[in-house]
Automatic annotation (TrEMBL):
Pfam families: FMN_red. Residues 4-175 form the Flavodoxin-like domain. Keywords: Flavoprotein, FMN. PROSITE patterns: FLAVODOXIN_LIKE. This is NAD(P)H-dependent oxidoreductase.
Amino acid sequence: MSYLLVLYHSRTDSVKNMAYEISDAAQHAGIDVKIRCFSDDSDDLVVTIDDLKNCAGLAFGSPTRFGMMASPAKQFWETTSDLWLAGQLIDKPAAVFTSSSSQHGGNESTLLSMALPLLHHGMLLCGVPYDVPALSATQTGGTPYGASHVSGLTNSSNLSQDEIAICQSVGNRLAKLIKQLQ
């Protein structure tokens, strides 16, 4: 069974809400989805190495922590050396998504740092192309490197319409690539 693994860490539900938008779009495009998180402080199941090994594609999300991914995400990736040695993730499409409290809170540097383990694993990293109208219109989150959310000083986990559209474009694009690669 092929599926998109939507893997995330979220403390205030912003990244979780993004994960569900990406998941919904991929499911509507005809792809099975497994949603997993990095720790047991969520209602979703905790990811296993087998979840990652057996996926057909990956959407990976983490909040911004000083311009980097959250430590539970980094700790998980440090356990994937066996998959790397065996080439288990080579040529699988992947995308990254994040959330920060401010527009200049490190979204782009976080997305770029999140891409590093995926590239080391040989995954096919896809961003958000400029044919997604919300990318040019957004006054909140969204970058060509991946979907993002800006929660503001109130730490709102409510996604803007542009952020939702960008997340959905990521889910649709991953679903399309998974189908093409199969």
